[in-house]
Specification:
CATH class of the largest domain: Alpha Beta
Helix content: 40-55%
Structural class: alpha/beta
CATH topology of the largest domain: TIM Barrel
Largest sheet: 8 strands, parallel, barrel
Distance between the termini: 45 Å
CATH superfamily of the largest domain: Phosphoenolpyruvate-binding domains
Bound molecules: 3-methyl-2-oxobutanoic acid, sodium ion
Radius of gyration: 20 Å
EC number: 2.1.2.11
Pfam family, one: Pantoate_transf
CATH architecture of the largest domain: Alpha-Beta Barrel
Strand order of the largest sheet: 1-2-3-4-5-6-7-8
Family: Belongs to the PanB family.
Number of domains: 2
Subcellular location: Cytoplasm
Shape: globular
Number of helices: 11
Function: Catalyzes the reversible reaction in which hydroxymethyl group from 5,10-methylenetetrahydrofolate is transferred onto alpha-ketoisovalerate to form ketopantoate.
């Protein structure tokens, strides 16, 4: 069985099918999601917060993206793997974007890349697509701009809503195969979805988008502390890991692990 391609994603939109996307940052977790049939995985620069211990996505480097994207590709057989272009790897212009995206395609083997920004990233998306690299756009809240925009719902008010619609059109006109809508009112996400022929992938954007994406550590209950209201926790992996670590520690201290079964003679 072959990998899912951007053509399959386009076909799903034509059939009106909804689909899920999860982030993944390592081969083992990605292999689990592949077994579960998740068709698209995003090696998000959210790895900065989730796996690398940074406060934001801003410090993530292209080297880090390439290394973890390669691991996710190796861990999967079926999913389309999308690699995020990190902050500073495409803002200088289309040529820098092409150089960065080419690394993720050649070194890591991703099937597509994602970058943030609507109108402001039109040129970058356009050159990548013309060069044969499928692009997923990302508008609304764009976490790489946290220092300028903070983390708040985007597109509220008539002017901001019109800008979001223009950004969505710009991403589509540049040739992107899909676009992430992050943290925008559900009604506006519905309007954007209705105005495009490419699929929208929502996160904190309500029910009307063609696809939904969650950061997997939020989704499985691994993220420490408070998670955003728009996410949903489907498991308690943090509790499971903590209980396993405590049980192991107790048995070592008590001398009940290892047993005869675990011992060679
Ligand atoms: O990095 C990421 O996880 C993302 C998704 C939230 C869309 O960009
Ligand atoms: Na991201």
């Amino acid at each position: 069985s072959r990998r899912i391609t951007v053509h399959d994603i386009t076909a799903a939109k034509e059939r009106g099918e909804r689909w899920p996307m999860l982030t993944a940052y390592d081969a083992m977790t990605a292999s689990v999601f592949d077994e579960a049939g998740i068709p698209v995985m995003l090696v998000g620069d959210s790895m900065g917060n989730c796996h690398l211990g940074y406060e934001t996505t801003v410090p993530v480097t292209l080297d880090e993206m390439a290394m973890l994207s390669a691991a996710v590709v190796r861990g999967t057989k079926r999913a389309l793997i999308v690699g995020d272009l990190p902050f500073g790897s495409y803002q200088e212009g289309p040529v820098q974007a092409l150089r960065s995206a080419t690394r993720l395609v050649k070194e890591a083997g991703v099937g597509a890349v994602k970058l943030e920004g609507g109108e402001r990233s039109h040129e970058q998306i356009s050159l990548l697509v013309r060069s044969g690299i499928p692009v997923m756009g990302h508008i609304g809240l764009t976490p790489q701009s946290v220092n300028a925009m903070g983390y708040r719902v985007q597109g509220r008010g008539e002017e901001a809503a019109q800008q979001l619609l223009r950004d969505a059109k710009a991403v589509q006109d540049a040739g992107a195969f899909a676009v992430v809508l992050e943290l925008v009112p559900g009604e506006l996400a519905a309007e954007v979805t209705g105005s495009l022929h490419i699929p929208t992938v929502g996160i904190g954007a309500g029910q009307a988008t063609d696809a939904q994406v969650l950061v997997y550590t939020d989704m499985v209950g691994l993220t420490p502390g408070r998670v955003p209201r728009f996410t949903k926790q489907y498991a308690d992996v943090r509790g499971t890991l903590r209980d396993a670590a405590r049980a192991f520690a107790d048995e070592v201290v008590e001398g009940t692990f290892p047993q005869e079964d675990h011992t060679f003679h």
